[in-house]
TrEMBL record:
InterPro entries listed in its UniProt record: NrsF
Domain of life: Bacteria
Lineage summary: Bacteria, Pseudomonadati, Pseudomonadota, Betaproteobacteria, Burkholderiales
Keyword list, A-Z: Membrane, Plasmid, Transmembrane, Transmembrane helix
This protein's record includes keyword Nucleotide-binding: no
Name this protein carries in UniProt: DUF1109 domain-containing protein
Cytoplasm among keywords: no
Signal peptide annotation: none
Transmembrane segments: 25-47, 59-78, 90-111, 131-149, 156-176, 188-207
């Protein structure tokens, strides 16, 4: 067989790749996972009874902004990790920006209260359960995002799975804000962050198995 004939045969029936396939997979995964997290929240913890008041309270939206911005940062990095050969570069720093901001805010709050009140601001009322509640709500998101990432071609499986876990934990934290009574920045800086980092750590550990080609 001549070379030209071989090339023509191999090229027969090839269709161009949909350039939006990655975004569609992630949108489906995030919508399905967030719906699952919201269902778990309503079935197990419930929405806080004063949610209507919270929706017009600025500090509530500041609380939501923390995991939302971290979710955006995780997604920015994850989008690069699922593309073979793509360089993440300075995008690695993006998820760290909201963490740094909330830590600065927490330190500012703690510096302006008496020393006797600082521990209560950091522990709140639910420090024992908050991170694990977030991890529980992240389970549907973890499943959905692992499915989405498996549709791609990541080469750094640990990093991709860790960022998927961070994204799952961040979206789960947004959902958890509908229930959580804690309204102090130092609490979010410790326990919300812990709840988001646990799925990321599990993703790092389990990534080679979950995303193996």
């Amino acid at each position: 067989m001549k070379t030209d004939d071989l090339i023509s045969l191999l090229a027969t029936g090839i269709r161009p790749v949909d350039p939006h396939i990655m975004h569609r997979a992630f949108v489906r995964a995030l919508c399905a996972g967030a719906a699952g997290a919201l269902l778990l929240l309503t079935m197990t913890y419930g929405v806080r009874p004063d949610i209507r008041v919270m929706l017009v309270t600025p500090i509530f939206w500041l609380k939501v902004a923390f995991p939302l911005s971290l979710a955006i940062g995780a997604f920015v990095v994850l989008k690069r990790l699922v593309v073979p050969g793509a360089q993440v570069g300075t995008r690695w720093a993006v998820p760290g920006v909201p963490v740094l901001a909330v830590w600065i805010g927490a330190l500012a709050v703690l510096a302006n209260v008496p020393a006797t009140e600082r521990l209560s601001l950091m522990l709140g009322m639910t420090w024992r359960t908050c991170p694990f509640n977030i991890v529980f709500l992240s389970l549907p998101l973890c499943v959905a995002l692992v499915w989405a990432v498996r549709q791609m071609a990541p080469t750094n499986l640990r990093a991709a799975s860790a960022l998927a876990g961070l994204l799952a934990g961040s979206v789960a934290t947004i959902v958890y804000c509908l229930h959580c009574p804690e309204m102090e920045v130092p609490f979010w800086a410790i326990w919300y962050l812990a709840g988001m980092l646990i799925p990321a750590a599990l993703g790092w550990l389990l990534g080679p198995r979950l995303l193996r080609w």
